[in-house]
Each structure stands twice: as structure tokens, then as C-alpha cells.
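Hi Y.,

Following your request, here is the sequence exactly as I used it, all 423 residues.
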Amino acid sequence: MLDIAQVRSHFPALSRTHDDQPIVYLDGPGGTQVPDSCIRATVDYLSRCNANHDGVFITSRESDAIVAEAHEAMADLLNARRSDEIVFGQNMTSLTFALSRSFGLLLSPEDEIVLTRLDHDANFTPWLLMARERGVTVHIVDIDEADCTLDLRDLERRLSRRTRLVAFGYASNAVGTISPVKEIVAMARAVGALTFVDAVHYAPHGPIDVQDLGCDFLACSPYKFFAPHLGALYGRFDTLDRLPAYKVRPADSHLPGRLETGTLSHEALAGLLGTMSYLEWLAASPVEGDDRSYRTPRATTLHRAMRVIEAWENGLKTHLLEGLRSRADVRIYGITDVARLDARVPTFAIRIAGRHPREVASHLAQRGICVWDGNYYALNLTERLGVEDTGGMIRIGPVHYNTHEEIDRLLASLPPGQAGAVA
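Below is the corresponding structure, written out as C-alpha cells. Let me know if you'd prefer a different format.
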């Protein structure tokens, strides 16, 4: 059993209050709080060895060592084969725009790519704009509206020998659906296509093993899993290595530097290492299941930590779902079958009968409860569900530092629906 009080003691922000009540952070899908080890590592970098890359003097050498170690740590978290398969950037969106431009140079008008309606716009518009520039055909996979899962039969219909890339999400940042990544990768590979997986929303909730998934690219954002504002991209080495890079002329010609434009946020990478230390501490918590070995001892430890997180969140999402389902005036979007909860993360999108989502979010904010409203850049999905023009949805996003008591407080604070209105 997770010692949640000990976990929460690592996150300074969780002690903040609003009107004499502790703030309840259920806004994790937009960015999580960070542990004190992350804060200390960031401050230590700026206090001790803040310098630019590749100098001969001591602070630059120390800074370079931190940056190299961050690549190693991220490779461990994702179980990449090697650290030069990791590319850092400002955020996932920026990295995807850059990668789409590089990848597009390899395409011609007879080629096709496949996108989905379930994705965050950062895994849609960059590819769409590239396709327009290159004359590439775009196919869009639909969803099953009943449970907001990808329609794999529709995906199968849209794949062909002309498909060059399938871009899709690991988990929906709006409704929490976990897609069958390995199955989709296998379907794409069968027609000779590469795969790009947006794992931004899945990364805080469970272990990721890119070797087991078999994907060619996978992107995530460390600020969504308890680290500073950063983006991280995994790419299979031989695939990354053949991509043309948009770089200034004197820059590093080798991976990963060849695809990392300008100077990285070294202090944020130091903070990421601090977060990794926290996850290593968390891995000491008991968790059921086999412990398999990964590329390094730290990789094994980090994957165990993510299973600890997954186990605690399983209880949170069951608790939250049962509370939401008890309300006839609440409509839940996505998977609501308790027997299928392993196919979703604990992110829930809802609407309350007769209440605008912004009204509900404001009502909760006044009570110290942080939730999101709107479309959260999942614009294709909110349009497909018919809620975009009426304010989108309310998004409730607990992570592993949240408690069952906080879920109860949220449920008790949700306003009632308006009489006669349909949820």
C-alpha cells in the first residue's frame, strides 16, 4: 500500500491553501506539481554550474555532464536502447512541429499519412500542415462515440501500401482512453508505415517501454510527470539518423544534438534528474506484479515506480468513477464500465445538466479545487462529440499524489444540475 502522506510530503505545492482549505490539484493533465528534489536540483544547477554547452572550463563541463545524464535518465524511463535516441526540446508540440518538417522532406505527393480524431491537436495539426505543404494525402481515423475509443476497423480501412506514417495517442488527454499501442504499431508495420505515439498524457500514469511497443517515435512532456517544462522525443536510432535536420551550420552533426535546436534549458534538465531521484525513492513502495529487468538498474527501478503509481491510481479512478456514476445529472465521456478501467487513465471528462463547463470550473475554483474546462486542445474530439460550441467539458485529472479524501471533496463540491436539463 502506498504511503500517500509520505508521497505528498515530497511536493511543497500540496501544502498551499485557499480560503483556509488545502488546494486540491486535479489539474494534472495540464501539468503536474513537482517534488522538492526537482526544485533543489534546478536551484543547484543555477547556483553552481550555469553555463553553455561544450566549453573547456569547469562549469561548462559540469553542465554538459548534467545534460548527458538527463538523456541517459530519459532513455531509462522509456527503456530506449541508447541515450542518443532521446531528443529534448521546449515541449512536445515544438518537437512534433520540428519532426514533422524533417520527416516531410522524405515524402512526396503519392504518399499518405494517418491521423486520428482522438488526439491532442499537437499530434494532428503539425502533421496536417506538413501534408498540405508536401501534397501528401491525410486520412483521419474516427472514434466509437459511445466510449471514445479508436475505431480500429476504420484504421484498417485507411491503411495502404502508400501509408508512410500513423500518428496517434497513447492515452487521450480529454477522456482518458488508452489506445492499444502495440496492436496499432503492428497494423502500421504490416503496410510498411512508421508510427509516432503521443505519450504525453499516458506518461504520468504508467510504465512505457518503447522497445516492447515497437514504435518508431514517441513523444512526452516531463512537466506532465512531475518535472519542469520540457519536451522529450524518443526516436529509433536508424530512423532519427536519416532525418534531415533544420540546424544552424556550426551545430552538432551527431544525434541527439543534431535534432536539438539552440541551447536547451539546462536547469530544467537538472530538475528532471531531481524528479528521477524522487521516482527512484517511490519505487521502494510495495507493488504486485513481476519485476522484469530493463536496460539498466535505474530503468528497472523507474519502471517499478511507474507501476506503483499505476496501482494507486487504479483505486482513485474506481472511486471517482463510482462517485460520478451515482449522479443522474452528470454525463461521463469515455469508458464507464468498471470492468474496463484498465483501458483508461484516471482522467475524466464530464458535463453537468444545464451547467456550462466554465461555470462548474469556476464554482470548484472558489472552493480551492483545480479542474480544467474547455477542449484542452482535443478540438477534433470535442467537435466530434458535439460539445465544442457549448463550452467543451469539465476535465478532472487526478495523479498519484491525490487522495481518496480529495476525490470525496470534489464529488461533494460539484454543483447540482439544473432541473429539467439533460446531462
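The mean pLDDT is 96.

Thanks again,
Q.
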